[in-house]
Amino acid sequence: MAEESAEEKTEEPSEKRRQDAREKGTVAKSTEINSVLVLLTGILILRFLGPWIYRQIAGTLIDFYSDIATISLTHETLITLTHKALLLFAKGALPVAGSIMITGLIANVIQIGFLFTFKPLMPDFKKIDPISGFGRLFSLRSLFEALKNIVKLTIIATVAYLTLKADFPKMLQLSDTSVGIIWLFMLSVSFKVMLRIAIVLIVIAILDFAYQRYEHEKKLKMTQQELKEERKQMEGDPQIKARIRALQREMARRRMMEQVPKATVVVTNPTYIAIALKYEPSEQEAPVVVAKGKRTIAERIKAIAQDNDIPIVENKPLARAMYDKIEPGFPIPVEFFTAIAEIMAYVYRLKNRSAA
User: Fold this and answer.
1) Residue ranges per domain, the chain?
2) I need a surface site. Which of 74, 117, 202, 297 has the fewest CB within 10 A?
3) Cα gap 273→297, rounded to integer Å
């Protein structure tokens, strides 16, 4: 049970996982939003541009059939007729088709932003695996889609029925009217039905988009192990990084030890801390710490100092205070000037005695 719970996707998806999924084309997207916006666009275009499209097509057809009896079929006239046919198609189809295409693009941008990738088009043999396909066929998502379509069809049928029922008395009064009036009435009722259906579908599309977002976030969730593996990939293996840091510290320590023979004096605790100081009055304004260390490193510093005849001075308070405040390569702060000056004076006296 512990292993199963460890594999549960309980962690929120990382930014890298979201970006990888987006590059693969795996995004939260509802086809219902595309469908309803395309439907609504088509309805509105036909409602407001329908009369103009009708007049354009009717005028072109009238001209076409008026001239067809007098036109002899030649290469030139065939080209002319073809141009007229293409013009007729453009006037009738392009306003609707162009608007629907633009609306479809806008619907995608609203949901997922600007995204251009070919990865969803790449062949994936997992998608044609019969076992996986059988599992998807009877999955919870398939059940949800089936229920959604049933509810959608039920709502559409109900809205259409109620709208037609309300206009049914008017239909009975059309028996003595002209064909033109009947046609206009049918168009008006059809527009009303489609518009109401579109409004209902907008609500369904919004709910479906919320569900798709929820499902998308659920799929992107990660197990704790996946999160750890991703961090390793992005930041590097912790063991390797620790080894690199250890090597860097060792190299820095080795360089530091190489500076101890150049020191002027070593201040000790006496056994716990050792700090090597270098001071050249003609080159430096203040003594510089060239090495410091505790325990084993302190012993090594003192051993190197003894081998190179460097004075070792015991001063516990000064050694403790300097150790926490000064790093190798930096001069001592002003607060230690007096104490260090006394030590340097002592060192120079020792050198003078040795020289005498």
Assistant:
1) 11-219, 258-355
2) 74
3) 8
